[in-house]
Amino acid sequence: MAARKPVSLLKGKDNIAQTWPNEPVRFTQEHVDEFLLWCVKKNSSDVTMQTDRPAYNEIYGVLYPGTFRPLDAADMNVFLDRLYGPEALARLASGNDLDVSYEIRPDRYTRIRFRVNITAILSRGRDSSQITMRVLPSEPPQMADLNIEQDIINSWAPRQGVVIVTGPTGSGKTTLLASGIRMLLERRHGAGKVVCYESPIEYVYDAVKSPRSLISQTEIPRHLPTFSRGVRNALRRKPEIILVGEARDKETISSVIEAAQTGHTVYTTTHTNGVANTVARMVSTFDPEERSERAYALMESVRLIVTQTLVVKIGGGRLGVREWMRFSDDVREKLMEMDFREWGPEIQRMLPFYGQSMAQSATGFFEKGLIDRRTYINLSNSAGSGGDS
């Protein structure tokens, strides 16, 4: 029988994402930041720890082991305590998942931030947990860095109304939204007073120079209990711009509409696929007897909807593919003359004239050789029809 290779020779065999060379026999709190800093240097976009499995780095959409050995319950408890605190296990046992932000300061000038989700799972018949850590850049990217289409940039700053960024989980909604806020801050005349409500706070704007702007960030539920409470709080603070991290329930959506109707510009995100589906899904959160009134109030307020998804790019990396539509005065007027249950097909018909469909965007990237045929077909078939509200 051939002799087994020593652990030291097996470690680091994968040159793309080798396992941590300083991996300890047992993790302690002193190891956590050191390990995470190593993951960041390996260009990991997400770090995942799960009981009975190695830690994993996601690099350009592919998972690579970050530790040689599986993490046991003791290792996971160290991570949980470091990232959340000693009450983490009790919170998980009560049926809650945990969303927090985490920051490492390797020196006085550097901040490395993570968005953290902790979820209870079952592993080998025992209650366990999984920690997912999204690595956040030190400052929001510029829209040019994300190759945002000029049509979206031109429509990004309405005088008042709602701009909605949508897409599935992990599609880069928060990054797109943050880059748009940075663009507003960096305008020659600034952005005035900007108030943000996020869960958790992902991007910070400390490094963005904007002498004619004042931005504040409030974390939900750390500072205020809900997004709807956040919007009500914003209306007492006289801002020009309000950012609401997510509008997914009727209270928050109503608050967003109210803020827009009182003359503010509101930016928010929601988990939907496609422009038409976004309108239908937001209306469907309301009780049947109030849907009509809320639907028309939403249509009065909306100015731009952008749907984004991230796909693997030929040659490596990921690419943002977007569908968008401008809701100009004539578009809103025409839709408000119709029954709101007929909006879905009509919005789909309007898309090529007032924006661009996901299929159109996919066609352009495919013809440029940036995405493969399978991705192109999937994107082309993913356009939402809107449906009934």
Describe the structure using short key phrases:
disordered N terminus, Rossmann fold, single chain, 2 domains, Beta-Lactamase, 26% strand, alpha/beta, 6-stranded antiparallel beta sheet, 14 helices, globular, 8-stranded mixed beta sheet, 389 residues, 14 strands
Describe this structure in words.
- There is one protein chain.
- An eight-stranded mixed beta sheet has the order 9-8-10-11-7-12-13-14, with helices on both faces.
- It folds into two domains: 12-136, Beta-Lactamase, CATH 3.30.450; 150-380, P-loop containing nucleotide triphosphate hydrolases (Rossmann fold).
- Helix 7 (227-234) packs parallel to helix 8 (250-261), helix 8 packs across helix 10 and helix 13 runs antiparallel to helix 14 (373-380).
- It has helices at residues 7-10, 29-41, 73-83, 88-93, 150-154, 173-185, 227-234, 250-261, 275-284, 291-301, 329-336, 343-354, 358-367, 373-380; strands spanning 46-50, 56-59, 62-65, 98-107, 110-123, 126-136, 161-166, 192-198, 213-219, 241-244, 265-270, 302-312, 318-326, 355-356.
- A hairpin with a 2-residue loop joins strand 4 (98-107) and strand 5.
- The protein is an alpha/beta fold.
Briefly, what is this?
With 389 residues, this protein is of the alpha/beta class.
Approximately what portion of the residues adopt beta-strand conformation? 25-35%
Based on the structure, what is the oligomeric state of the protein chains? single chain
CATH superfamily of the largest domain: P-loop containing nucleotide triphosphate hydrolases
The low-confidence runs, each spanning 5 or more residues with pLDDT under 50, are 1-14, 384-389
Strand order of the largest sheet: 9-8-10-11-7-12-13-14
Question: Which CATH C-level class of the largest domain is it?
Answer: Alpha Beta
Tell me the structural class.
alpha/beta
Distance between the termini: 67 Å
Q: What overall geometry do the principal axes of the alpha carbons give?
A: globular
Largest sheet: 8 strands, mixed
Q: At the third CATH level, what is the topology name of the largest domain?
A: Rossmann fold
* Average of per-residue pLDDT values: 90
The topology string of helices and strands comes to: HHEEEHHEEEHEHEEHEHEHHEEHHEHH
CATH architecture of the largest domain: 3-Layer(aba) Sandwich
Number of strands: 14
By DSSP (H or I, 4+ residues per run), the number of helices equals 14
The proportion of residues forming helix, as a percent range, comes to 25-40%
